[in-house]
Amino acid sequence: MTAHVIVTDEGAARLIKMRRPEKKNAITQDMYRAMSAAIDTAQNNPKIRCLIVTGGSGVFTAGNDIEDLLSEGTSTGEAPGASDLVKFLYSLAHNAKPIIAAVDGVAMGIGTTLLFHCDYVLASKTAQFSTPFTTFGLVPEGASSLLMPRSMGHQRAFAMLVMGRTMTADDARVAGFVNSVVAPGHAEVEAHKVAREICALPAEAVAISRRLIRLPPEDVTRRIDQENHLFMERMRSAEAIAAFRRFVARTKD
């Protein structure tokens, strides 16, 4: 585990909290491993009925750690294989427990795409969602090219995934991937209320009903693999490396 991910079991809910505030919760490989383990170990634990993913108050996550991506993209070794990000996405795809996201502040890249693996999303009024993949010379990940158009339509998905446009909390609720918008600092509190509501329902009925309304995991992982292959190719492109370097240089000024 890592100090940048805090996992606590509170009643029948498991809280998975990203805590790297000095980097706006930018996610490292260690953080992906910790979150994946938290999800995987809940699967055969009947005491855990629900999962909550949050970044705490003020920020959800700025997405992938760009310095990690730059390091991988400029590596002189073989092209990187399945990363800890992909393992985390597999954990989300195969997860059988209801999962709630509590978003307060920025949710960038994977911070937005992981929400489409969730069953209930709360966002504070300050939440902002963006997927600037093409800005960095990259392509969508996390099965977002499959899940986002299915959830909110092709045109909205194009504006986010291809044009890199940002969406507010209210717009996200209208688009259908945020259930409710709450006051700043209250997303996590409200997520626990939703978790208690879900946990009070008959467990087997919830599990079966959830499975019926979701895409089969194999469909999702097939798209994850397809996107990952293209993502890894793009990471070593001149466009991507130049974009990574510009970003890192700006953050160090």
Architecture overview:
The protein is of the alpha/beta class. It has eleven helices and ten strands. Strand 2 (13-18), helix 1 and strand 3 form a beta-alpha-beta unit. The chain is globular.
Percentage of residues assigned to helices = 40-55%
Uncertain stretches of 5 or more adjacent residues: none
Percent range for β-strand residues:
15-25%
Anisotropy-based shape: globular
N-to-C CA distance: 32 Å
Q: Spatial order of the strands in the main sheet? A: 1-2-3-5-7-10
Q: What would you call the structural class?
A: alpha/beta
Cα radius of gyration in angstroms: 17 Å
Count of individual helical segments: 11
- Largest β-sheet summary: 6 strands, mixed
Total beta-strand segments: 10
Which terms summarize this structure?
alpha/beta; 11 helices; single chain; six-stranded mixed β-sheet
